[in-house]
Amino acid sequence: MSGIRRLPIGVQSFEVMRNDGFVYVDKTEYVVKLAAESRVFFLSRPRRFGKSLFLSTLKAYFLGKKDLFKGLYIEDAEQKQAELEGREAWIKYPVLYLDFTGGIYDTSEGLLNRFLSFFNEYEEIYKSTGLDIPDRFKNLIKKIYETTGKRVVILVDEYDKPLLETMIINEPLNEEYRRILKGFYGVIKACDEYIRFAFLTGVTKFSKVSIFSDLNNLRDISMLPEYDAVCGITQKEMEEVFRPEIIELGKAQNLTEAETLAKLKQKYDGYHFSESFVNVYNPFSLLNVFAGKVFRSFWFATGTPTFLVRTLEKQKEICIRDILENAEMSENALQDYRPDMNNPIPILFQSGYLTLKDYDERLGLYKLGFPNDEVKYGFLDNLVPAYTSISKDASGLFIGNFIRDLRDKKLDSFMKRMYTACAGLPYSLASKENVQMRERDYQIAFYIIFSLMGQFVQTEVVSSKGRADCVVHTDDTVYIFEFKLMGSGTPKEAIQQIKEKGYAEPYKTSGKKIVLIGAVFADGIDEDTADTWESCELP
After folding, report:
1. pLDDT (tens digit per residue) in 222-234
2. Is 427 helix (H, G, I), strand (E, B) or coil?
3. What is the pTM assigned to this prediction?
4. Dist CA 240 CA 263 (whole Å)
């Protein structure tokens, strides 16, 4: 029996990972590349994507901890780069490391306390003081340079956490935080002559106007093809580094190696960060599936960020279906996020819920969509309470019963559940005044429910006017649905529309029974009208 390898779940320290024998995917090629440029860098990646570990790797490198890098790409590359630059290899630099992940930011003291902890740690060593945050930061950098004779390395992890935790819920505090951070990061530009290297990470990149306006030498590498895989795991890396775990996972799930790889790709692959479209896996999910030997939604189990929930709630008038199916944006719009913007696509992209799917070079526009099944179904599941009467805790059971009803051909039970799901639909204010808005509310509810059913059966949730609203395939039956709002038609008319428009034609050669279902929904706002439906089987 082979030994059990240590998988670094939750390990964010490069030093701990190397000293304690954890499996490590070598990313040191990027360290060499970045260090050679001697600039100020920014990297945006979704949560739990390896940003902290990469920052820790940079820290170990600039502290000259050569022994930690034995056997890695950088071991030889650093010597070659040093000879090219005419310097010694593994030079030790003073490093300032600021981590915002550990703070609590619900009051004005929250951010100040985090800075106070940071300054107290380093000012005591270098005997530096100052009047306010920018002044203390500037004096500290200069004092370190004067004391050591070496330029300073600045590493900032999750710079945007204070902003994300206060966004929408406390705008005055958010504005105060933006002002404080703007002054802090402006020092990096002002002290350029004393700085060897700086690297900032975060989930979002707030508009330069609000945060980085004074830091105009910042280089954003988030969407550069050469840094696609700086965080995350590529297909090649996974198959080379984790082959023992892939084999064990396949055995546990009774799958061949090829089937295991296919399911891993479907569940956890598909992140793209540039027009090169290099596929990247979510490392957190991969490590967890290898450790537990079971396919689950590990990334979503850590919780949906509150800032995202608040953003979607604030922008309820936007059709979420249109966003998810027809999302398009330019590169500039995707990279910068403004708290006052009415389009949630940039923050959905930066936080990992949408990814790049296609690029129109002529127009400079990216098309976006879900990266994989884990994100797709996890995201839709989180939307259930906002767009239906189904509670978050009950959504899994509710969807399971939908599938069971269709498989057992219990249409009465299926439709009763559908009406129940929409009975207490939380209508937007605009929908009370606008029939089209009311129809949209129902369409979103249907879209979410049928999309979630796609985890278990083949479904088609159609947005084109030339096809049925929804199609569900079971082992022996194809169900074709057409929904109408009360006043826009009857169940019979809905079924007649399916027939006249030829919605069933693509499925007549399937060998399966074809059932047509027409349903009418009351708007549920001012009326208590009984909802009705009919079905018929094609001969």
Report:
1. 999 999 999 999 9
2. coil
3. 0.90
4. 17
